[in-house]
Amino acid sequence: MESLLSQLVLLKKSQNLFLTIVFLFYIVGINSCKKNKEFGLEVDPESSSVAAIYCDTFSVISFSVISDSINTDELNGPSPLGNYIDPVFGEVNASIVSQIRIEQAYDFTPASGSLGDIVVDSVVMYLAIDGSYGKIEKQEFFVEVLDEDIFKDSTYNNKTFLSTKAVNLSESGSIKSDPLFPGYFAGVLVDKAILRIPLNIEEFANPIINESGSSVLNGNDGANEFLSFFKGIKISTTNSVNGGLYYIDLLNSYSKIKLFYRDTSGIPSEHDTLDFDFNINSNCAYFHNVAHNYSGTVIESLVNNPANGQNQFYIQSLGGVNGRLIIPGLDSLIGKQIIINKAEIKLPFEDYLYDDFPSPSALFISRRSVDGNYEFLPDLFEGNQGGVFDPLNKNYNFNITRHLNEIIAEKILNDTLKIFPNGSGITANRVVLNGMNSTKKDKAKVIISYTKY
Fold it and tell me: Cα 365–404–408 angle (5° rounding)?
């Protein structure tokens, strides 16, 4: 009997010991989860002694500046044309400058030998539309002849303005074209939206036809040929009109000037309407210029008072405004025995459904190099920099891990970062970003995960 009691006591002690051990493991497990939850994921999942430290308290200084000029000649994309007024970013006016080339060497002289028998019925400029920006309303377009040469091997930017002969060839009046519906080209409905601008016969057609028989109509290049005689055109519109921007595809086959005429020297039944094309193609020099007017806008106030960028800062395409970021606290990591596992910049934006002024599809970050010029971050060349428009989380998220590791290694200075939009030369997109002192829920933030060694 005593032996049985002894065994039961011993068994009870063993059970208590087992429960105690299980409880201790449970407590350790809870503490370990809290640590991981507090400091981030472990670098090595099989190690329980090394954990990443997580920090999102770095100050972010943000502001906006007027963009430097951007090249706009022969870009791979549409050319903006029109004028609109943005309630936040002010007025934007975009015009197009381009050469035109004759379809072929030509002589309009009829069989009668008299140019007086040539009757021009109409001259129409057709411009293929590849989208729009802002709300499209009626506006008046002007077409002028250039008074100075342009060259395909020269560089032109959004602030380049060339002189013209100051004579308006356009007879369009106030017009608009729906960028979402097919339009008419030479009287035929086509599968492309078309902006149609009638031109003055006396000012455009007759001076060219009168050159029949001379070297002017012999070709497009060389001395005394067409490009020397007719240097090019400028297409523009008036200010202070909220008409929207058309994105014009100059290289589309529907973008050209057509001259419709008849040879009346024969019998009336033979007076068929003929046409001759003046083409805009890849052999032409062309560019667009853009004027921004920020008078009385929040942009004007922000550029003059950069400290206001801590609340909101602004980015706009077409040579408008760019953002700047300074993260001074990153200097505190220099010289520390750490490895950056991941570093991100989150820039929340204001976005409204059905807004007439959509945001850029992506933003880019560049940094100042050792020679003082701006360069892309090394993370971009690894294909993981990010910066894509995120409509779900309403932010642009950037990976700057390589960049920060180079700062810590003192390969590059912790200097100002430049934020600018994708497609800056061919779209008008703009965005309002929240600074770290924004009254909005989501604010600009730098998030870093690092490991000590």
Answer: 145
* pLDDT tens digits along 8-52: 334 344 444 333 433 333 333 333 323 333 333 333 434 434 578
> In a 3-state reduction of DSSP, which class is residue 9?
helix
Distance between CA atoms of residues 361 and 440, nearest Å: 22
Can you point out the beta strands (E) in 200-307?
Answer: 233-237, 244-248, 256-263, 273-279, 286-293
| 8 Å CB contact between 361 and 388 | yes
CA–CA separation, 272 and 268 (whole Å): 9
Q: Using CA atoms, how far apart are residues 147 and 17, in angstroms rounded to an integer?
A: 99
Residues 6+ apart with CB under 8 A from 260: 120, 121, 122, 123, 124, 273, 274, 275
Distance CA 320, CA 421 (A): 10
Between CA 260 and CA 274 the distance in angstroms is 6
Is the Cβ–Cβ distance between 344 and 446 less than 8 Å?
Answer: yes
For the segment 379-414, what is each residue's pLDDT rounded down to a tens digit?
988 777 899 999 999 999 999 999 999 999 999 999
Distance CA 119, CA 97 (A): 29
Terminal C-alpha separation, the chain:
62
User: CA 321, CA 444: separation in Å to the nearest integer?
Assistant: 18
Structure tokens at 53: 């430290």
Give the closest residue to 64 by CA, choosing from 412, 324, 379, 369: 324
Question: pTM of the predicted model, to two decimals?
Answer: 0.84
CB of 286 closer than 8 Å to CB of 79: yes
- Asked if 362 and 371 touch (Cβ cutoff 8 Å), the reply is no
Task: Supply 257's token pair.
Answer: 């000037």
